[in-house]
Design a protein that fits this description.
By secondary structure, the chain is α/β, with parallel strands linked by helices. The protein has eleven helices and ten strands. A seven-stranded mixed β-sheet has the order 3-2-1-7-8-10-9, sandwiched between helices. A three-stranded mixed β-sheet has the order 4-6-5. Strand 2, helix 5 and strand 3 form a beta-alpha-beta unit. The chain starts with a helix and ends with a strand.
Length: about 260
């Protein structure tokens, strides 16, 4: 009987920890203090540290009239800092979910907001909109996300076609695995304007699109970029980036033109 009791005890502790973390997460959101979660959870601690670094990157890269491009805007978490640091520019943002676009448009009326997904080729596509975890939504459904997916039809475009005459200084890409396809549709912009790029990459999500970490690194290397993580390590060579992608621990990355 001792072994089943130990298993039951571990399961009870795990459930209690999950309940406590959810409660603490709710408190952090209500108080708008995400750093509360970083005290007790290692993953949240890294995410919080990355967010601090990201804000520093925005402040360092954007001048008062510098253009910022937000690919995968979600609820506009980055736009606040971009509008504050570059108030004289008209920033460009992409978010395929119409309900989120309505929220963003009301918060940031000066931003050029487009209800579109970005990829290598223009067209139409089906988009998985998670009802309770919209930040995980994308052109592919992720099996590990325990949430209802509502499929919606979205327009797909290339960043090179959407940028127009703008010369972006900073681009953020958070597209739940579609980053290779976004970059393949943005090569002219990166080659011509040499923006700093902050991007999210996890191999488990990228593989849903039939893409690899090697492809992602090679796109940047071919355009003369060096890749770092937001913990300050790098530049990563091809093998190091692939190894880090396979490990899945690091999520947020920085690509800087040489």
């Amino acid at each position: 009987m001792a072994e089943p009791l130990r298993h039951a005890s571990r399961a009870a502790r795990s459930r209690a920890r999950d309940v406590a973390l959810r409660g603490l997460g709710g408190l952090a959101r209500r108080l708008d203090k995400p750093e509360i979660m970083s005290v007790v959870d290692a993953g949240m601690r890294q995410a919080h540290n990355d967010s601090i670094v990201a804000r520093a990157i925005v402040a360092a890269v954007l001048g008062p009239a510098s253009t910022y491009v937000d690919v995968g805007t979600n609820r506009g978490q980055w736009l606040s800092d971009a509008c504050r640091c570059a108030p004289k520019a008209t920033h460009l943002a992409f978010e395929p979910i119409p309900e989120l676009c309505a929220v963003i448009a009301s918060r940031f009326p000066t931003v050029d907001l487009r209800t579109v997904a970005l990829a290598e080729s223009p067209g139409q596509a089906r988009f998985c909109r998670y009802l309770n975890h919209d930040g995980w939504s994308g052109l592919r459904r992720r099996s590990e996300v325990a949430d209802e997916c509502r499929w919606i039809d979205v327009r797909v475009a290339r960043l090179d076609d959407e940028v127009g005459e703008r010369a972006p200084a900073l681009i953020k890409i958070d597209v739940e695995g579609a980053e290779v396809d976004v970059l393949l549709g943005a090569r002219q912009t990166l080659a011509a304007h040499r923006p700093t790029v902050v991007f999210e990459h996890q191999l488990i999500a990228t593989a849903l699109y039939g893409r690899t970490s090697e492809e992602l690194w090679e796109i940047f290397a071919g355009l003369g970029y060096r890749v770092f993580d937001l913990q300050g390590h790098g530049p990563y060579d091809r093998a190091g980036f692939v190894e880090a992608g396979a490990a899945g621990v690091l999520v947020n990355w920085l690509a800087v033109p040489t």
